[in-house]
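Appendix C reproduces, verbatim, an entry submitted by the partner laboratory led by Prof. M.T., so that reviewers can inspect both the input and the predicted structure.
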Amino acid sequence: MGFLTRSGPAMRNQYAKKRRRSLPLLAGALGLVGAAACAVGVQEERQLGDQYAAAVDTGMPVVHDPAVQAPLDAAVRPLVAVAARRDLPWTFRVVNTTDVNAFAIPGGHIYVTRGLIEHATSYNQLAGVLGHEIGHVDLRHTARQIEKQRAAALGVGLGYIVLGREPGAAEGQALNVVAAAVFARFSREDERAADHAGVRYTTAAGIDPHGLADMFHILQQVQGTDPGAIEQFFASHPMTADRIADVERTIAADPAARAAAQTGRKDATVFHELQRAVHALPAPRPKPRSGP
């Protein structure tokens, strides 16, 4: 039993006044500690990424069929060769779901769904999306999201310390869920930076960079006909009205990008081989229905 619990009301009030006066100093000191505690270094980024990848493998229908993996690896090889971060063991996997989505987790693990591959009509569209996801990792957007989530969780914990109480288990779990939900969505600035990275990488790899904008058009069409299939992508990758135009302006302003658009590699054979392999996979499990 703690000292504060055994003391009387007068003692508790006196302690509360001292605690309020000390809040600025406490917040400053813990803020410095918190910033260091929340930072994610490169080694930890890779460790966390490996842990998350194992969780994705367990919780999602990740494909390990060599018939799918071989053309996927061939499709991404030119992009990996021009990626900024050479310290990461880049891995790419297909997820056997009809959702139209692609996502990156720390450490260079990138996933693309069967639905997105099936909706793409050309290699440069798939390359544009994967270049965008590589950009998120290269620019450490995913690592910074972890730092923000940690900071949010730390802030909540410090709040309970300052208030002199601890959250219950259910309350703490709910706060963790909220913190994760708040920061799962990339900012417009991050999306714009990843779009520009996707244009740079496809251009450097000799791939038509218009593929990213073309894929955005397809995603918008899918949103109109089957919004449920696209909701996960737009939930984490906010689409703004000027985003496609911004990609097109970026290409128009770059002579190398304009040249790649005219003479860029097609890799149609690899792309169609990947599509055929994906079509041959077992049918994805139907989504559970919501509601009664």
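Residues 9-38 form the longest helix (30 residues). Additional entries are available on request from the coordinating office.
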